[in-house]
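[agent] plan:
  1. take the single chain provided in the ticket
  2. run structure prediction with default settings
  3. attach structure tokens to the ticket
  4. add a short note for the reviewer (M.T.)
[agent] executing step 1
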Amino acid sequence: MMNLSIANKIGRNDHLILLVDKDTDWNKIGQPEENIDIIKSQVKKDIKQIVIPAPAKMIFISVLDKKDSRYQTDELIRKAGNKILGVVNKHKAQAVTIQNFSSAENASLLFAEGMSLGNYQFIRFKKDADKESNPLDEIRFFDETVSKQDVDSLQALIDSAYLVRDLVNLPVNYLNATQLSNEMVKAGKAAGFKTEVFTKNKIIALKMGGLLAVNQGSIDPPTFTIMEYAPRNAVNKKPIVLVGKGVVYDTGGLSLKPTSNSMDYMKCDMAGAATMLGTIYYAAKTKLPVHIIGLVPATDNRPGGNAFAPGDVITMHNGLTVEMLNSDAEGRMILGDALSFARQYKPELVIDAATLTGAAHRAVGDHAIVYMGTADKELKDQLEESGRDVYERLIEFPLWDEYGDMLKSDIADMKNVGGVNAGAITAGKFLERFTDYPWIHLDIAGVAYFQSNMGYKGKNGSAIGLRLLCNFLKKRAGK
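[agent] step 2 finished; step 3 output follows
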């Protein structure tokens, strides 16, 4: 947990972080001349993190860099916050107060964002968790440009990111489909949005053949959860629907994952579901005037029991039949049902998020989200702008008809895979068949879970996609 607040004054023993740049007026930073001399000499040597011990407190100085574009400068500030974090924790500071003497706009908030996200830990299963816990748990702002609303919004964002990461990092023996639904209900009560959970009998009644087929190999039942945040002052007459893939663990089914270690982190295959939960949680916590509905189909994908087999024909929620040729392409099966279900809301826009294809990860690596969809250019431009704002950048792939031809089946309406080429796109073309509204698909397979430390984005669950969607919704709300 990270607590953020505004400081009305600086106490004598408060640990300080001073944000400066090469244009800072050193006479205004409130430090004695000997400290200023130390800072100036270190800045000349291009040293970016400076520590000055003082009686009963520490003073940390971060020298901020600039880039030509605003969004790149903002990212450098987040990274600077994460970089100084290690020094702060090393000195066992439990709380720090940030002052901004740089020329960068919103520097205090961006710096605190990088620190807070970087300070996340998932150590609940460790015997000595208390000893391994980072000392820092409070950041204060002594900055007249930072409002209480700014701090509350950032606090909600950090809380949402921690929620997403916690869920993604939980192993399946602590988070099956039912437990995931319970977590959504719990979050709804905490943030103030409604939840409804469909159990297996209801899913059968709704004829969600994709979700039921994937679940056939499991001893745990599937769930389908509806979340709704509907403020009275919503600016949208039709809801924005968020759909998240909730495969709580993926073995690949009978098409067992073939590559070494490929199952080791498949607890993260519900990152899309966690992302959409976190987004609605943030919207409710900050009282965004946007009507949002979240849909999460959830199950594990295992080769046991009566597991669906390559060659099976599945009838989906919208009546389309699918020749299933690879049970490791299960995410699109459960999403297809959810996207079809979303039609009843006559949505303004539907966005789905899923750890859907290794092809997307191979195409763009660890540094972008592959997306595609039928929404108009204005909506896509807005989403890309939000991606730059939070440095969760997007790359659009096409949805040309020829890619749909790759899904043609001899015995059913379509296949669930299109072959070895263009795998991310053919997955998107599959999903498109279940939509008749403006729609955007986010393939977060490459960025939802990292096996090495990625700075403030962390190691393991990253919550990438959350900040993108929260920024996008804030702009849709006119904030």
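[agent] step 4 note for reviewer: The chain has two domains: 3-146, 157-476.
[agent] ticket updated
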